[in-house]
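Milestone 3.1: sequence recovery, worked example.
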């Protein structure tokens, strides 16, 4: 016994503890195929499993980087809203839950609004941060969508919302539910201006979010395998007492049943959305020629660029082919450009 406890046990303990020294967060297990994913490789693959193609969660900054051309975007600040108006408390105070999420994510709430270009088209994105209380929609998120819609109208830009949410934020009660009609009115403002409103559904989009703005887009795109629905599968199964198909509520199932327009892999999103936007915004020819030079001068200076576009548009309506090519003669030299536009004005 002595030999066992004095010799073997310390040896085993030493072995086990030396294994513990390897940081656990270097590897991640794919929730779909259970393959091991090295964090650096996973990062390089934009959080898509390189064994089976499963799309893992991605943070909002990386999301915006992937969606916007050359990863260039500028954040739009969202107005403050009253914090915890109901002084709600369940197991924990809502104010504390908010603080915890704020420390964890370093964000004020579960939404980020940014603007930039996609496929050369002015675009405003409102992206949900699932890490922040499950991306739930409270007043701050509603405010974010309203801000994004207003920004899109102001810039004559397309609006893209990227929900990743469990639904309404119950801690805000009725005020949370009010965000459903509020967000609908917000996206309607964009539609009334004749600007495209695209929804990029990501895993998961459920509850009040799927029951409001997320299902009224002009185009619905989804990432592969995303869970999209109102109530969960189990709840529906128990209510209707019927067995539901294996892939129920997945992006692919919804595509098959005509609920969404396309399922696009993460790596192709920028290109696909870019081509859709340039088609919808009717700027195909100038956009194509601008795309090359755009990378150099797209420093997020949206205002100047959209003004430039307006000029390009007006002149192209005049029917001159030569003018169409002008924007990419000297795209990154503002002095030349004003001269060019003056010339255009004269002619
Ligand atoms: Zn996998």
């Amino acid at each position: 016994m002595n030999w066992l406890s004095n010799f073997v046990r310390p040896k085993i303990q030493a072995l086990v503890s030396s294994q513990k020294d390897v940081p656990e967060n270097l590897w991640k297990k794919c929730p779909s195929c259970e393959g091991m994913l090295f964090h650096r490789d996973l990062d390089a693959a934009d959080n898509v499993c390189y064994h089976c193609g499963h799309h893992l969660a991605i943070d909002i900054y990386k999301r915006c980087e992937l969606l916007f051309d050359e990863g260039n975007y500028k954040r739009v600040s969202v107005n403050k809203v009253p914090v915890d108006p109901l002084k709600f408390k369940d197991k924990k105070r809502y104010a504390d839950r908010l603080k915890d999420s704020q420390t964890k994510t370093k964000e004020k709430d579960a939404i980020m609004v940014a603007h930039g270009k996609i496929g050369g088209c002015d675009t405003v994105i409102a992206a949900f941060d699932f890490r922040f209380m499950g991306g739930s929609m409270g007043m701050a998120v509603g405010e974010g969508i309203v801000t994004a819609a207003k920004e899109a109208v102001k810039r004559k830009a397309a609006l893209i919302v990227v929900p990743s949410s469990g639904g309404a934020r119950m801690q805000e009660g009725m005020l949370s539910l009010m965000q459903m009609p509020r967000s609908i009115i917000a996206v309607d403002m964009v539609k009334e201006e004749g600007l495209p409103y695209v929804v990029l559904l990501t895993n998961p989009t459920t509850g009040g979010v799927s029951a409001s703005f997320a299902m009224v887009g002009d185009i619905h795109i989804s990432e592969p395998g995303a869970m999209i629905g109102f109530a969960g599968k189990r709840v529906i199964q128990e209510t209707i007492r019927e067995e539901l198909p294996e892939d129920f509520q997945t992006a692919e199932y919804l595509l098959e049943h005509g609920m969404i327009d396309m399922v696009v892999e993460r790596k192709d999103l920028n290109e696909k959305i870019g081509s859709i936007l340039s088609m919808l915004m009717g700027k195909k020819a100038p956009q194509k020629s601008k795309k090359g030079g755009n990378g150099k001068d797209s420093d997020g200076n949206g205002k100047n660029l959209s003004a430039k576009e307006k000029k390009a548009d007006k002149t192209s309506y005049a029917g001159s082919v030569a003018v169409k090519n002008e924007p990419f003669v000297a795209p990154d030299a503002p002095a030349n450009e004003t001269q060019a536009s003056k010339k255009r004005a004269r002619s």
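The chain has three domains: 20-56, 57-280, 284-346. The domain at 57-280 is CATH 3.90.226.10 (2-enoyl-CoA Hydratase; Chain A, domain 1).
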